[in-house]
């Protein structure tokens, strides 16, 4: 077997030195998160002042996202034997995204009706007002499906690398990759150069990840220092409901699709644990995007599939955000003693499906899409979002974690559908942690 062969090969050479536990990234991030929570709790003002540490780390990672996506997609498409597979992969990915995003919305709606986390709060809607909510509502009115689609097209060929908008970078990368593939031998020197450039760029990603514990420490110290653990007490039921619902969605629904496609969702979560701890510490799924792409490629998914599915999924496959939207909408209605009819709830579901695409890629998209959804359902006051504004930071971590697992699962499933998955390598990576070092 291949596992035995790998083990035998390691016996002939010097076995790789196993890192000490404190040298492992996710262990360092865990310690940083715990230290940040303690510091933020006992020294809140000092903890709040550490916000720049978290922001600086996220900015460093965002700095490298555009080159990673561009190089992965261009070299992947340029190396394709069948260019038509670009549209095929994208189409399959979109079918997957639409299906599971809708399921996530339905799950949030069902759980909200069963548990009723807002029941008994008896809030008078007329007493609710927040200038911050007004800002989100204004952004929601600005976002639309047409505007979102138009925004995918950049002003110039190089402007996406300055603005850092993921879908614009992806759009340019796909076009450039197709152009290189059609250029044949004339485009080969450029393709070879970009393939060589990929190695130092991913080496840079590894270097930046060494700062992850510092970023997680600063971000967590700020969160606890600014908002305080006590601030979540009166809304604990909503937070607990959301976390449990997201966990069940991952284990049951994503677990079922994973099993059907020949892998375990638990093994996948274990494989991407570094990225999950990083997201938990920084509350940003973008912080893990470059390393997630590298890991999926090393797990046996073809480069072109990874490059197309993950960046697109960051805008279209937001399972955690969708669960949050329907659950939060019902929470606000229940807190204000507003009885919603089945028709109104279905309207929320349909509007949320559209608004989640219109605000994709916008900072604070979860809150903006909620505002856009509520503005179409007059029965629920948009001002009711003030009830959950204070705990949104704690909710955003769960949204980001669920989104990350959903996109990792989607990459493997779409790769398998398109016969672009090395199943033997996937099993080695997920079960034994043995990856392709040349990926």
From TrEMBL:
Pfam families: SDF
This protein's record includes keyword Transmembrane: yes
GO biological process, one term: L-aspartate transmembrane transport
Gene3D superfamilies: Sodium:dicarboxylate symporter (1.10.3860.10)
UniProt function note: Responsible for the transport of dicarboxylates such as succinate, fumarate, and malate across the membrane.
PANTHER family per UniProt: AEROBIC C4-DICARBOXYLATE TRANSPORT PROTEIN (PTHR42865:SF1), PROTON/GLUTAMATE-ASPARTATE SYMPORTER (PTHR42865)
Protein name: C4-dicarboxylate transport protein
Organism: Acinetobacter courvalinii
């Amino acid at each position: 077997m291949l596992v035995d062969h790998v083990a035998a090969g390691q016996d002939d050479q010097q076995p790789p030195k196993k890192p000490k536990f404190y040298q492992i990234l996710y262990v360092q991030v865990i310690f940083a998160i715990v230290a940040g929570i303690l510091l933020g709790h006992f020294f809140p003002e000092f903890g709040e002042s550490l916000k720049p540490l978290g922001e600086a780390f996220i900015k460093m990672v965002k700095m490298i996202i555009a080159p990673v996506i561009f190089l992965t997609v261009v070299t992947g498409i340029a190396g394709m034997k069948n260019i038509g597979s670009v549209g095929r992969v994208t189409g399959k990915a979109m079918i997957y995204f639409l299906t599971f995003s809708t399921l996530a919305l339905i799950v949030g709606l069902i759980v909200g009706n069963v548990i009723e986390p807002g029941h008994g709060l008896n809030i008078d809607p007329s007493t609710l007002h927040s200038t911050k909510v007004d800002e989100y509502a204004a952004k929601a009115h600005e976002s639309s499906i047409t505007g979102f689609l138009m925004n995918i097209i950049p002003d110039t060929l190089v402007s996406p690398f300055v603005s850092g908008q993921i879908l614009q970078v992806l759009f340019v990368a796909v076009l450039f990759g197709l152009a290189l593939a059609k250029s044949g031998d004339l485009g080969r020197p450029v393709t070879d150069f970009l393939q060589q450039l990929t190695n130092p760029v991913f080496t840079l990603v590894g270097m930046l990840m060494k700062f992850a514990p510092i970023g997680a420490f600063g971000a967590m110290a700020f969160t606890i220092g600014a908002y305080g653990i006590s601030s979540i007490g009166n809304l604990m039921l909503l937070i607990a409901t959301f976390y449990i619902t997201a966990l069940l969605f991952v284990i049951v629904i994503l677990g079922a699709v994973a099993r059907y496609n020949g892998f375990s969702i638990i093994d996948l979560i274990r494989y991407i644990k570094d990225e999950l701890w990083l997201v938990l510490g920084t509350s940003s799924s973008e912080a893990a995007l470059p390393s997630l792409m590298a890991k999926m490629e090393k797990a046996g998914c073809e480069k072109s599939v990874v490059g197309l599915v993950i960046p697109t999924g960051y805008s279209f496959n937001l399972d955690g955000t969708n669960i949050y939207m329907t659950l939060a909408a019902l929470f606000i209605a229940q807190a204000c003693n507003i009885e919603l009819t089945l028709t109104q709830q279905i309207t929320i579901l349909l509007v949320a499906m559209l608004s989640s695409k219109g605000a994709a890629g916008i900072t604070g998209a979860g809150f903006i899409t909620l505002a856009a959804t509520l503005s179409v359902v007059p029965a629920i006051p948009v001002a009711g979002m003030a009830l959950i504004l204070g705990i949104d930071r704690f909710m955003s971590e769960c949204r980001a974690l669920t989104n990350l697992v959903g996109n990792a699962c989607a990459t493997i499933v779409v790769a398998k559908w398109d016969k672009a998955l090395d199943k033997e390598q996937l099993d080695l990576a997920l079960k034994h942690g043995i990856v392709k070092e040349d990926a």
